[in-house]
Each structure stands twice: as C-alpha cells, then as structure tokens.
Amino acid sequence: MQKKTEPSNQPSEEKKTPTFGIQRIYVEDASFEVPDAPEVFKKDWKPEVKVDLNTKQHVVDDQHYNVLLVISVTVKLDGKVAFIAEVKQAGIFEIRNFTEQQRKPLLAAYCPSILFPYAREIISSLVGHGSFPPLHLAPINFDAIYEQKVREEQKKRA
C-alpha cells in the first residue's frame, strides 16, 4: 500500500537552493583583419598592442542568462595597423535562486572569467594563423573591474 503525501504550501528545499550552471559556451563572432598585407610582413616587429574589453548580459528566461565577452586587439607597427583581432565569446548560464545582489557579480565578473580563456585561445589562434608572432593575453581580474564599476556608480549617485 502506498502512502499518499499531502501537497505542501512550503517550497521544497531544491527550489530554494541557489543553482549555477554552464549551459553552453559558444563563439558568437570572430574576425581577423590585416589591412596592410603583405607590406606589414616586411617591417621590424616592434608592436604597439591595444586591448579593448567589454561585457554584456541579457536575460534568456527566468533562469538563464546570456553573457557576451568582447575582446578586440589592435596591433600597430610604426603607427599603422598590422592587424585587428576580435572575438565575441558568449555563454548561456543557468542562475537560479540568487538574489539580485548575488546575481550581479556572477553575471558581470564570474561568467566573463569563465569565458575569457576561450576568447584568449581564439585570439591566439587567429594571430598565429595570420602568420604573426604569438600573442598571449594576460589574465584579467574581472572581480576588480566589477568592483571598480560599482564604486564609480556609487560616486555618481552621491
């Protein structure tokens, strides 16, 4: 004989437990340009490297978020662009039962830090396939970037 359980108005513990998961990591876009080829290969390799970084997030549904990490690298020789490499690395993350205060740093710092190694590898591969010397991006402290943005927003409000 099976025992019937009465439905409870209390949410189950499973529903209350914060959950974080990686659903998918993918390349949204990647590009590589060498505007001065083949002349650029005749020059001495003394590069000026500029790295631009940006992150964006949007809600997919009530439990899933899409995070986009955009890295653009512009390398110049003697003031002329040698190459431009850009990667838009994205991920879909399951984030359930976190407060908004907890969710913000997850989306702005933790998720981009997960995406960064993938984007860094693609940049490195693009540069290598472009026949240029290796380019290895240094690790990025997304937590520090997030904390700096929070402080700047607080100053603006004050």
Properties at a glance:
158 residues; Bacterial Protein-export protein SecB; four-stranded antiparallel beta sheet; 4 strands; alpha+beta; single chain; 32% helix
From the structure provided, what is the oligomeric state, counting identical versus distinct chains?
A: single chain
Poorly predicted sequence stretches spanning 5 or more consecutive residues: none
Bin the strand percentage.
35-45%
CATH topology: Bacterial Protein-export protein SecB
Mean pLDDT: 92
Count of discrete domains = 1
- CATH superfamily (homologous) name: SecB-like
**Biggest sheet, strands in spatial order?**
1-4-3-2
What do these coordinates show?
With 158 residues, the protein is an alpha+beta fold. It has three helices and four strands; from the N terminus they run H-E-E-E-E-H-H. It has one domain (19-151): Roll (Bacterial Protein-export protein SecB). The chain has a four-stranded antiparallel sheet with strand order 1-4-3-2. Helix 2 crosses helix 3. The longest helix has 30 residues, at 100-129. The protein is elongated and about 60 Å long. The model has no long low-confidence stretch (mean pLDDT 92).
Please render the helix and strand layout as text.
Elements: H1 13-16, E1 19-33, E2 48-61, E3 64-77, E4 80-96, H2 100-129, H3 142-157
Concise structural overview:
The protein is α+β, with helices and mostly antiparallel strands.
